[in-house]
Amino acid sequence: MEHFLPKGSRLMRGKIIKGIGGFYYVQTKSAGLVECKAKGVFRKQKKKPLVGDDVEIMLLPEEVQTSGMAAGNMTEIYERRNRLIRPAVANVDQAVVIFAVSYPKPNLNLLDRFLLMMRFQGVPVVICFNKTDELAQEEMAVLAQKYSGCGCALFFTSTKDGNGLEAFARRLHGRTSVLAGPSGVGKSSLMQALFPDVLVEIGEMSRKIRRGKHTTRHSELFYLEEDTYVMDTPGFTSLELPDMEKEELKEYYEEFAPFTDCRFLSCVHINEPDCRVKEAVEAGKISLERYQNYKSFYEELRIRRKY
């Protein structure tokens, strides 16, 4: 898109990390954080900027900046790779769900709901079991086995002894991640352990942004290092299943894939005879607990459609 550039202004690309009261805060490589207003043409196109959007901005010359930080106008919103509704964010590379291994005891039904919800939206999932210093190696091995075939990257971490932190940090690097998990699992402690200096800067910048503006909680990406962003989400204790047909459910269980040559092509792996998936469960090749949650979700979807 061509633009008339006022003297002293320049075009650059960035990512929206926060939006408050009509202002959008865009992280750029060359100018740092820039406070922007969106062009009116976006309203005419019914195109609302969203946290996570990759955008083009026109950086204004210093003499017209009034907020004490770099200022500009948003001129283009690039095509989104994906979009999550809750939390409201675009262009997510992965969803990272964090559970404690012992206290609070991991609710695997809740974890499986999260995996299903993210897979339904086409977002890769990373599972992080935190506080590994509180659990024996044998018990962790059992937990790892349950999720070894689900198609998700799996990490075990501890902020007390540093176990797994380096590998987990590498997984976050260069990606936009949404962090999720119940309260008390150690999300904040993990981020403090991995990015202590950055979080201090984030806190100072957040206070600067909020000064004189609305302070209601908004979706916000935190810039940790080059091309690395995270969004924290409130702790959750329950999740609705996606709006899907019960017959679709089996397609979202990757560990079922090697066992699809059942007697019936339409087999949903519940009550049908000669079912390879059920045989795999009995043989220990598929987690019994994962399969039991699958049956529970299938029934929940059946009842939802009935009423």
Structural class by helix and strand composition: alpha/beta
**Which strand order do you get reading across the main beta sheet?**
10-9-8-11-13-12
Query: Overall 3D geometry?
Result: globular
**Could you give me the name of the CATH homologous superfamily of the largest domain?**
P-loop containing nucleotide triphosphate hydrolases
What is the element string, with H for helices and E for strands?
A: EEEHEEEEEHEHEHEHHEEHH
What distance separates the N and C termini? 50 Å
Number of domains: 3
Oligomer: single chain
Description:
The protein is of the alpha/beta class and 307 residues long. Mean pLDDT is 86; it is low at 211-217. It folds into three domains: 10-78, Nucleic acid-binding proteins (OB fold (Dihydrolipoamide Acetyltransferase, E2P)), CATH 2.40.50; 89-232, P-loop containing nucleotide triphosphate hydrolases (Rossmann fold, 3-Layer(aba) Sandwich); 246-306, Ribonucleotide Reductase Protein R1, domain 1, CATH 1.10.40.50. The protein is built from eight helices and 13 strands. α2 (108-120) packs across α8. The strands form three sheets. It has a six-stranded mixed beta sheet, sandwiched between helices. Strands 1-2-3-5-4 form a five-stranded mixed β-barrel.
